[in-house]
Amino acid sequence: MSLDSEAGPSPPCSRDWFFPSPTFIHAPAASKTLTNPRRFSTASRISKSFISASRSPKPSPVNSFSTSTSSPRRDTKYAGIRRRVVFDRPTERLQKPDGLDNVSGTQSENVPDACDGIAVGKASSKMRFIAYPTDRIKFRWQMAFSVALLIIAFSSLLQKNLSFHSQVNDLRDQVVNLNMKLRACTLLDSMDDINSIPQQSDQLHNKSLKNSALIVSLALLSIPILVLKYVDYVSNSRRSTDNILEEVSLHKQLAYRVDVFLSVHPYAKPLALLVATLLLICLGGLALFGVTDDNLADCLWLSWTYVADSGNHANSEGMGPRLVSVSISFGGMLIFAMMLGLVSDSISEKLDSLRKGRSEVVEQNHTLILGWSDKLGSLLNQLSIANESLGGGIIVVMAERDKEEMELDIGKMEFDFKGTSVICRSGSPLILADLKKVSVSKARAIIILAEDGNADQSDARALRTVLSLTGVKEGLRGHIVVELSDLDNEVLVKLVGGDLVETVVAHDVIGRLMIQCARQPGLAQIWEDILGFENCEFYIKRWPQLDGMAFEDVLISFPDAIPCGIKAASHGGKIILNPDDSYILQEGDEVLVIAEDDDSYSPTTVPMVWRGNLPKDFIVPKSAERILLCGWRRDMEDMIMVLDAFLAPESELWMFNEVAEKEREKKLIDGGLDVNRLVNISLVNREGNAVIRRHLESLPLESFDSILILADESVEDSAIQADSRSLATLLLIRDIQAKRLPYRETMVQQVYRGSFSQGSWIGEMQQASDKTVIISEILDPRTKNLLSMSKISDYVLSNELVSMALAMVAEDRQINDVLEELFAEEGNEMHIRQADLYLREGEELSFYEIVLRARQRREIVIGYRLGNTERAVINPPAKNEQRKWSIADVFVVIAEKE
């Protein structure tokens, strides 16, 4: 085989490493012996300029080879990035054979131009190059990097091979499992083929059941329509057949029955709404069961969701389910609207009930006030003051007024409730249901106010209220305080109420107070202090440590209170005012005192007090008096009888009013007064209008000792009108007196009164008031401020005093016995005594010493008023302290009537 046939194609031009040709490798061993050791040398890659040069027209092979062999060594600037290795050959073998040249020339024509450089490099390999150490190091690093890349590539291939192998195993397992499932499915298909006939029959049965459910639901929905049509048909047929007899149609009867059912039964509306909701859910569930493939339970639940939330039907698919779901949702919206209206009506009704005061009061130990009058404001004020020591209380007011109006009127009252809560309720005290609504059986006190208007009608209503209270099945825990207008009705009310009732006759109390104040100027202020809870009032309490002590020693045993009487257990609990000094307290006896509060006093050891002697004997000065009554009261006969008992013989009582004289006599006789049986007074009748000046000028006003201006019966229903009339009468009388009295007589007392000058008209009236005492009956508390500022009258505030008495009796019913005795014609009463009856001018005494001196006259001193002050001091402090007294001072005592 020739060398040309063995030689393969020349290597591509992109190879970096070149090895010796086969001729060199297969040469004889002798020729392979090298004179110099074989070394690798690097040569620069053929530059682009050389390649381009080689692409020029090719010369003959021989010339090309000779040129390449004879060319000098290339310059380094033509060196490329890559280098190839050329083997050094012996110089004698440098020349190639001619055949090889021909072969090379032939091959050079078939390979690319870049391979010409390779042939030239092989031809010039006989040239020796010197290899530097740096080139060797680079070569080694390249070899190491190539080996590392090969190792990495081999390891990655190995890893992929392993992963592919594991995936193949997994796929084999899956194929096995799928084959097993396929076999199982084949078995199930064979069984389904066997059971296909029963399942088809069940499907047919379910389909028929669903159709039946749909038909039933439609039938039930059509029943109400058919019933309504039938009712209309029957009603029209009856109306057409019988026009003579007017019978109620069936439609109206059914509507009436439904109306009665909804009105009588309180829970009818919610029950009807619940039934409608359940029917809608059941019918909707049946309809859904007929048009869907779900079971009945799921359809019922789905129907409930459509009723509860109308937006859930949006997910329905198909004509039938959508139609049914829309119908159910529409019914659900109607039910929701009805439920919303029912809830709204219930809330509105509850709020309206609360607003109108129809709700029940759940309280106990509260004070219940039945009725509404002008005295309510003062009564609430006194009860609030009484409850202040307890931290406040509960007061319930029930009247036949709107609750909002009552709360608005109470809110306008100008006083502090001091922690007491006032609850208003609208209702009638004559109805037991309304009484139970305010917890009447648990109240500790019940106050019945007299109505404004006719006295007989007011007392009759109070009597019916007492009858209603006694009819409470649960019984009453507290007592009843009844305000009456006429003294004659007191016996009847006590007969009905029994021991539960305490009565306060307003007109009788005010009349007696006016008479006492007319005879003793300044007594009205003392009664205000005692009856009200703002200062000192009456209290009754048991003190076991006082048993066996004489009443004289009990008087000086309380440093913060003044004993006034004893509630004797031996006399059945009767209260004895101003008992004898020799009375010894026994077991069970209680002490009646005047104190600031029920917890502000207690007894101590008896102090050493010097009794002393009275400066002179007390002689009651009793002389004839002349008194004028302006106005007419319905209890005028009672006032006349009281005045006849109090006044001295040969006294005169003038009556000036608009009532005709014959009519007066008739009214007095009807009231039980016999004029011929009067002992100490004689009646003088004058007819006229008290607000007309010329009528008043016909009276000898300057000659009266006392003038009583009464709230006239014709205007007593209106407090403002009655007070306006009384105030006008007062001003006219004072003006007439000031002009009739001599100037030198009116200037006797040069006492500064208030801020008015002596030359003003009010100053003249004040000077005239020193001559005559005028008592005015005032109903409105606002008029009180006008009279107190002008100081032209020793007024009596009737409504406020009655309210004080009602509050005091409500807090302790035993006090009513004390008040009845103090206001009665016989027994003990309040008196104002001059200081010269108990001491001498400039004498220094303690209050206890004055108390013991007054006991020599069987009087109880409860307070005093200094000569340079206007108000009395009741239950003074520091009773054992010495002080200098004056003859101008006066003392307030409880003594028997003169």
In summary, what is this structure?
The protein is of the alpha/beta class. 48% of the residues lie in helices and 13% in strands. The protein is elongated, with a radius of gyration of 65 Å.
Description:
The protein is of the alpha/beta class and 898 residues long. Helix content is 48%, strand content 13%. A six-stranded parallel β-sheet has the order 5-4-3-6-7-8, with helices on both faces. The longest helix is centred in the N-terminal third of the chain and has 109 residues, at 133-241. It is elongated and about 150 Å long. Mean pLDDT is 76; it is low at 1-132 and 743-769.
Supply the key terms.
single chain; 898 residues; alpha/beta; six-stranded parallel sheet; 24 strands; elongated
Secondary-structure content class: alpha/beta
| Beta strands, count | 24
Form type: elongated
Separation of termini? 183 Å
Helix content: 40-55%
- Number of helices in the DSSP assignment: 29
Query: What composes the largest sheet?
Result: 6 strands, parallel
| Gyration radius over CA | 65 Å
Mean pLDDT: 76
Report the portion of residues in β strands.
Answer: 5-15%
**Low-confidence regions:** 1-132, 743-769
Sequence-ordered SSE layout with sheet pairings:
Blueprint: H1 3-6, H2 22-25, E1 40-44, H3 48-54, H4 61-70, E2 83-87, H5 98-110, H6 114-123, H7 133-241, H8 250-264, H9 268-291, H10 296-308, H11 319-355, E3 367-370, H12 376-387, E4 394-399, H13 403-411, E5 421-426, H14 432-437, E6 445-448, H15 455-470, E7 479-484, H16 490-497, E8 501-505, H17 506-519, H18 523-531, E9 537-542, H19 551-555, E10 562-568, E11 574-577, E12 590-595, E13 626-630, H20 636-646, E14 651-657, H21 661-670, E15 681-687, H22 693-697, E16 706-709, H23 719-740, H24 743-746, H25 761-769, E17 773-778, H26 781-790, E18 796-797, H27 798-811, H28 815-823, E19 828-834, E20 844-845, H29 847-854, E21 860-865, E22 873-874, E23 883-884, E24 890-896
Parallel strand pairs: 3-4, 3-6, 4-5, 6-7, 7-8, 13-14, 13-16, 14-15, 16-17, 17-18
Antiparallel strand pairs: 1-2, 9-12, 10-11, 10-12, 19-24, 20-23, 21-22, 21-24
Helix pairs in contact: 7-9, 9-10, 9-11, 10-11, 12-27, 15-16, 17-20, 23-25
